[in-house]
C-alpha cells in the first residue's frame, strides 16, 4: 500500500454524519433481532434546519449580496472588508477580546474550513499535536492528514460536573513532551460540556509557558443554557502567542447551507490561512458572506427563544436516557449534542448504529468517531423536532433493551 | 526560518488577482513618470460579473434550494445525488466521456476546490509533478504546498498557431524521469490557447504508457470561439488509468459568487477527494448546489450570444495590442484571457503592474505568477465592459510607450 493509499484509508468517512447513504447494508440481516419499530425518521447525525430554521432575514441578505454583484462575488480571499469590520466588533463584544478586522479575522467556507486552515498552517509532518478524547473527529483526521503525531489528552466528563474534566496534568505532560499545537472544542463536541473558568485559565497559562499554539473551536458557544457560564480563552489575561478561535453560524443559527465560518486571532497565522485559502477554495462564497451581516444581530429575543426550545428538548431527552438501565450520561451545558454511554451490547457499537437506523429509523453517530475509547457511546444532535426526537429515543431505548448483554 | 514559515513565504498571494488592495504602495512615487491617465477602472484580474451577468435563473434556483431546506443543506460530502445524476449525463454529452454519477463525480466549492482536492489526493511529499510553463499559478503553488517537486514543461504558444505548442519531448522526458502527476489547463490559462487533437492524443498515450496521473482543468472549455475545435482528453480511445477532469460554472457562466465546481474521472481518486473534502469544507454550499441544475441547460442561444460578445472584445483588444510596437501576442482560441508579452521596460514587470494600477486605473496580473520566465508578460481577463476594456488598453498602450526602454 502506498503512503497516499494508507493516508486515505485512515481518513474513513463511512461512519461520518450524513454519509450513511453510501454504506452497503447487505450484511445487516445476520445481526438483527426481532421486528422493526415504526416511526418518523430522526437523523441525529446533524441538526434539523427544517425544525429550527435559519435566522430570519438570511435569504434576503444573500439576495442583497447577489444584487451587489461583482464586488461581493470577488472579495479578498479573507473575505469582504466591510463585513469583517462589522464582525470584528461583534465578535469582540461577544468574547471580550480585541480583534483587528484587517489583520486578525478571516471568513471561511464553514467553520470546517477554518479548522482545516488553522491546523494546516500550524502543523508540519512529525509535529506533536495534543487532542482531547473525546473531541470532534475532524481534529484527529486533520492532524493525521498532515502527518502530525497525535498526543491524546483524556477528558473524564462523566466523573465531573463543575468542570469539563480535562486531565490537566496529562495536558502539561503533552506540552512538556514537545506538543506544538493543542486543538479542542468548547463546548466539547460530542459531550456538550463547557470548560470551567479555571480549566481555561490553566490551558492558557500552560500554552503560553510552553509556547504551544492553541486552536479553540467555539462553534456552539452561543447556545449556552440557563445558569451556565462560558469563559473565552481569547479574553484571558495571559494568552498564548499563537491563538486561533473558530466560530460560525452553521449550528445554533442553522445556516449550514450557506457554508460560513470565521477564525480570528494571531495575525501571522491568519495571514497564512488566507494564503492557503487562496489555493483551497479561494474564499467563502461571496454572496453567502452577505448573510454574516445578520450574525450577532438577530431579532430581539430570537436567540433566547432558540435556547429555551433546545433546553426543553435537552431536558426531556436527558430524562429519557437516564431512565434506561445501564446508560451513563451527563447533561450538556451548551450546544445540542448528547453523548450517552450505552450498556454493554451484543453488537459492536458501529453495528448497533446500523441496526438502529434500519430497525428504528434513527440515525446517530458512533462514539469511536470521537475517541477510540468511546466504544459504547453514541452522539445525538438533538436540534430536532421535539416530539419526533422523544419518540426516536423511546425506540432507541427499546432496541438497547433488545440488544443488551 | 522553520519549514512552515518557508512554505507559507513561498505561497505568496500579494500579486494574486484581487489581492492588490492589501499591497503597500508607499514606495511607488519613486517609480512613476508623468501624469496619471484618467479613466474608469477596469480590473482585468478577473471577469466582471456585472458586465456579463450570471446565467438567468441562477438566483431562483438558489432560492428553491433554500426552500428544499435540510435535505439540500446537508448533502453527501460529494454533493446531492439527484444533482450529480443530472450533471453526469450533461457532462457526458458535452465531453463524450461516460460518467457514473454515483462513483465518478464530485461537486466542490469552486473549481479551485476541485483542483486542490485532485492534487492533494494524488501528490505526496517528494513526488515529481509535471507543470506547464506558463499555466495557472495555483498548479505550482499546490504542488509546492504538498512538498512535491515541480518538473517544468515548456509551451511555446507564441511560436505556434496550429497547436498549443507544448514541448512533447520534454513531457516524455518528465514522465521518464518519474513524474507521477501531470496537471494542466486546457484552454491554457493564461495564454488562451487550446491543445490540438494531436497534442491531447499524445498526452493521453504517454500518460497511459508511463502510468502518470493526469489532472486536466477545463474550466474555460465551453467558451470556444468560432472555427475552433476542442478535444476532451477524457473521451480519448486510450486514457490514463488515473484521470481527473475539472470544470465549473464560475467563468463563462459568471457564477463565481456561488462557489461551484465539479471533478469527474477515476472512481478511487474521487473517493479520496470526498474523504478529504469532508475535513476541508464538508461540501460545496448546499443551497448553491441547486444552481448547478441550470448548468448546461441555459436558455436557447444564451451561450452562443455570450461567446459572440466575448469574441468581439477579443478581436478589438487583439487589434489594439498588435498595434503597440514591441508587443507579441497570440489570439486566444477559447476563454477570456489575453497574455501579451510587452517590450522591455524600465521597470520590473511587477512594478509596471503597480504603476499601471495607480496611473491608469487598470489592473492586470504579472506574468511571473504563471511562469518564472514570463517576466515581460501580463494577463488580462477580457470578460469586461467592451468599451471600458478598449479604453483601458489604450491607457496601457500609452504607459507601455512611456516606460519602454
CATH class of the largest domain in chain A: Alpha Beta
Estimate the global geometry of chain A from the Cα principal axes.
Answer: globular
Whole-number count of domains of chain A? 2
Q: Count the strands of chain A?
A: 12
Query: Largest sheet of chain A, if any?
Result: 7 strands, mixed
Distance, first to last CA of chain A: 38 Å
Total helices of chain A: the number is 13
Chains forming the largest contact: A-B, 67 and 67 residues
Provide the CATH topology of the largest domain in chain A.
Aspartate Aminotransferase, domain 2
Q: Bin the helical content of chain A.
A: 25-40%
Oligomeric state, counting identical vs distinct chains: homodimer
Give the second-level CATH assignment, the architecture of the largest domain in chain A. Answer: 3-Layer(aba) Sandwich
> Strands of the biggest beta sheet of chain A: in what spatial order?
2-8-7-6-5-3-4
Structural class of chain A: alpha/beta
Amino acid at each position: 500500500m502506498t503512503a497516499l493509499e494508507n493516508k486515505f484509508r485512515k481518513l474513513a468517512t463511512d461512519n461520518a454524519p450524513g454519509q450513511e447513504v453510501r454504506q452497503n447494508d447487505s450484511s445487516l440481516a445476520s445481526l438483527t433481532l426481532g421486528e422493526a419499530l415504526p416511526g418518523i425518521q430522526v437523523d441525529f447525525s446533524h441538526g434539523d434546519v427544517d425544525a429550527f430554521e435559519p435566522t430570519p432575514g438570511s435569504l434576503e441578505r444573500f439576495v442583497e449580496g447577489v444584487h451587489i454583484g461583482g464586488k461581493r462575488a470577488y472579495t479578498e480571499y479573507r473575505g469582504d472588508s466591510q463585513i469583517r469590520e462589522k464582525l470584528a466588533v461583534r465578535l469582540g463584544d461577544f468574547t471580550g477580546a480585541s480583534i483587528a478586522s484587517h489583520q486578525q479575522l478571516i471568513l471561511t467556507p464553514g467553520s470546517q474550513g477554518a479548522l482545516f486552515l488553522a491546523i494546516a498552517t500550524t502543523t508540519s509532518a512529525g509535529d506533536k499535536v495534543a487532542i482531547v478524547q473525546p473531541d470532534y473527529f475532524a481534529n484527529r483526521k486533520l492532524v493525521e492528514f498532515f502527518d502530525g503525531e497525535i498526543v491524546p489528552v483524556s477528558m473524564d466528563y462523566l466523573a465531573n460536573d463543575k468542570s469539563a474534566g480535562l486531565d490537566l496534568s496529562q495536558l502539561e505532560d503533552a506540552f512538556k513532551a514537545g506538543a506544538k499545537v493543542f486543538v479542542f472544542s468548547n463546548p466539547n463536541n460530542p459531550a456538550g460540556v463547557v470548560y470551567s473558568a479555571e480549566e481555561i485559565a490553566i490551558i492558557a497559562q500552560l500554552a503560553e509557558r510552553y509556547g504551544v499554539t492553541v486552536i479553540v473551536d467555539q462553534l456552539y458557544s452561543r447556545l449556552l443554557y440557563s445558569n451556565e457560564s462560558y469563559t473565552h480563552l481569547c479574553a484571558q489575561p495571559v494568552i498564548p502567542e499563537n491563538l486561533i478561535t473558530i466560530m460560525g453560524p452553521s449550528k445554533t443559527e442553522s445556516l449550514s447551507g450557506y457554508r460560513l465560518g470565521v477564525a480570528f486571532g494571531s495575525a501571522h497565522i491568519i495571514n497564512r490561512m488566507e494564503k492557503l485559502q487562496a489555493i483551497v477554495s479561494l474564499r467563502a462564497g461571496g454572496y453567502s458572506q452577505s448573510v454574516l451581516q445578520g450574525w450577532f444581530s438577530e431579532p430581539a429575543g430570537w436567540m433566547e427563544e432558540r435556547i429555551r426550545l433546545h433546553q426543553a428538548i435537552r431536558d426531556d431527552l436527558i430524562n429519557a436516557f437516564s431512565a434506561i438501565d445501564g446508560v451513563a450520561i451527563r447533561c450538556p451545558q451548551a450546544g445540542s449534542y448528547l453523548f450517552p454511554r450505552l450498556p454493554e451490547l451484543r453488537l459492536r457499537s458501529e453495528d448497533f448504529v446500523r441496526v438502529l437506523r434500519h430497525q428504528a429509523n434513527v440515525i446517530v453517530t458512533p462514539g469511536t468517531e470521537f475517541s477510540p475509547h468511546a466504544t459504547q457511546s453514541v452522539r445525538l444532535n438533538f436540534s430536532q423536532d421535539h416530539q419526533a426526537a422523544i419518540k426516536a429515543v423511546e425506540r432507541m431505548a427499546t432496541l438497547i433493551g433488545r440488544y443488551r448483554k
